[in-house]
């Protein structure tokens, strides 16, 4: 047992920690949140258990990548605005650099036979991962008949091309009405992420009853100023793109679209993927459905937020359309633009809203709308699983024979993930080996 309070953490020491975390944060949001809990609450005792869970509850109420938002919140809690920006940026930076590198390698060698073999093995794994996500979130969320109806209707909505924002809004309204009429059971987590429950040993540097740091004190003026600054940054950057390049330029369209996507990602990365896939493939033509699957497969193998697959979409869109004259430079710029507009709202939510959350220590009751949104997300994810399954099992279309072995590998991968509790890395690695073995036999 540790009974002594840890020494104050320097900004330099925190920077080293956040960069290291960004490099090792595999396992999706659940794994990343558990890793942060182990490091910050249990091992280092920088943050108390209650403060950590309080911040986690707030991040789960927000659209966007909750693990990155939680890292931003923890950094802000310890070292103010600069700490929040550093923590959130370093959590994303390693995965951004890796995704740019992987997207470049994909564009250069993706059509090579061995590259095709790796991707052939990964595609069933990606389909299985979406099936696992549907199963995991569905088991936690679909506790009542009305939630099953919401999920089913959202699936039909996606099939009938109802806009994703409209589906989310309708689900939220339904949940709000149900909450007014019935007492709803508490869900484990609105985003399908389990909350850590291991208590830390001994007092933390920022403990439950530590004096509130000056930057955490709520101020109405500060809230308005930070909100105005964040919105101003968005207007400035998107406006600059529109003025310099035109409203219909690829980069301007990417900035506007990925801002919208960032504000609609209730349910995590898998929830927004159908929205991004539909727009990037059908509406704008930045990538093909097969490339989207490949990007998700590569994104699963990198640390950081899974939503970083948007950098892959941006790179390929900028690369294929040669927006600067140089395909490589165009891809890099587009990946950075997409990342900026995807994560800017998350920084604004934390840095502007954090003091209010710390001052109240109580969250508003949004259980009904959040449960309904999560149920709708399940229906949307089922539609995404169908899109990916069709790409994997029927690569030549409905008029061609199905790929029997891809079907078998998908089933085995889903069984390993759901029933055997194997890790994503283990299953992806196995599927890559199978893909290479099939290529060698041919």
Topology, element by element:
Layout: H1 11-24, H2 28-43, H3 49-61, H4 66-109, H5 113-141, H6 145-159, H7 164-181, H8 220-245, H9 250-262, H10 269-283, H11 289-300, H12 309-320, H13 327-360, H14 367-393, H15 404-418, H16 424-441
Helix pairs in contact: 1-4, 2-4, 3-4, 4-12, 4-13, 5-11, 5-14, 5-15, 5-16, 6-7, 6-14, 7-14, 8-9, 8-13, 9-10, 9-12, 9-13, 10-14, 11-12, 12-13, 15-16
Mean pLDDT: 84
Distance between the termini: 59 Å
Rg (C-alpha, Å): 22 Å
The topology string of helices and strands comes to HHHHHHHHHHHHHHHH
Question: Could you explain how this protein is built, in words?
Answer:
The protein has 442 residues and is mainly α. It has one domain (11-190, 234-441). Helices cover 73% and strands 0% of the residues. Helix 8 (220-245) runs antiparallel to helix 13. It starts with 10 loop residues before the first helix and ends with a helix.
Describe the structure concisely for a colleague.
Helices cover 73% and strands 0% of the residues. It has helices at residues 11-24, 28-43, 49-61, 66-109, 113-141, 145-159, 164-181, 220-245, 250-262, 269-283, 289-300, 309-320, 327-360, 367-393, 404-418, 424-441.
């Amino acid at each position: 047992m540790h009974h002594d309070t840890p020494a104050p953490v320097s900004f330099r020491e925190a920077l080293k920690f956040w960069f290291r975390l960004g490099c090792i944060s595999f396992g999706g949001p659940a794994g990343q949140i558990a890793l942060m809990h182990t490091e910050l609450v249990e091992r280092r005792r920088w943050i108390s258990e209650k403060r950590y869970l309080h911040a986690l509850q707030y991040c789960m109420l927000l659209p966007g990548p909750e693990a990155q938002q939680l890292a931003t919140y923890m950094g802000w809690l310890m070292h103010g605005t600069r700490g929040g920006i550093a923590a959130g940026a370093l959590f994303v930076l390693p995965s951004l650099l890796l995704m740019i590198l992987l997207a470049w390698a994909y564009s250069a060698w993706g059509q090579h036979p061995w590259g095709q073999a790796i991707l052939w093995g990964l595609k069933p794994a990606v389909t299985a991962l979406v099936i696992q996500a549907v199963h995991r979130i569905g088991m936690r969320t679909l506790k009542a008949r009305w939630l099953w109806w919401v999920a089913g209707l959202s699936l039909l909505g996606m099939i009938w091309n109802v806009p994703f924002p409209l589906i989310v809004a309708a689900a939220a309204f339904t949940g709000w009405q149900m909450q007014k009429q019935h007492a709803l059971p508490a869900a484990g987590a609105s985003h399908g992420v389990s909350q850590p429950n291991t208590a830390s040993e001994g007092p933390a540097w920022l403990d439950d009853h530590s004096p509130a740091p000056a930057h955490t004190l709520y101020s109405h003026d500060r809230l308005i100023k930070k909100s105005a600054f964040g919105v101003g940054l968005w207007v400035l950057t998107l406006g600059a793109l529109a003025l310099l390049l035109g409203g219909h330029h690829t980069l301007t369209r990417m900035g506007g679209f990925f801002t919208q996507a960032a504000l609609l990602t209730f349910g995590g990365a898998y929830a927004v993927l159908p929205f991004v896939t539909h727009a990037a493939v059908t509406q704008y033509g930045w990538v093909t459905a097969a490339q989207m699957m490949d990007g998700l497969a590569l994104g699963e193998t990198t640390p950081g937020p899974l939503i970083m697959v948007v950098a892959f979409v941006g790179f390929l869109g900028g690369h294929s359309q040669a927006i600067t004259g140089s395909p490589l430079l165009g891809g890099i710029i587009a990946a950075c633009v997409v990342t900026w507009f995807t994560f800017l709202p998350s920084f604004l939510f934390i840095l502007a809203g954090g003091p209010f959350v710390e001052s109240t220590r109580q969250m508003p009751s949004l259980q009904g709308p959040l449960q309904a949104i999560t149920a709708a997300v399940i229906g949307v994810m089922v539609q995404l699983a169908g899109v990916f399954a069709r790409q994997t099992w029927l690569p030549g279309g409905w008029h061609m024979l199905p790929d029997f072995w891809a079907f078998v590998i998908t089933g085995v991968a889903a069984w390993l993930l759901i029933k055997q509790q194997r890790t994503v890395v283990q299953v992806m690695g196995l599927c890559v080996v199978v893909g290479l073995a099939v290529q060698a036999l041919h």
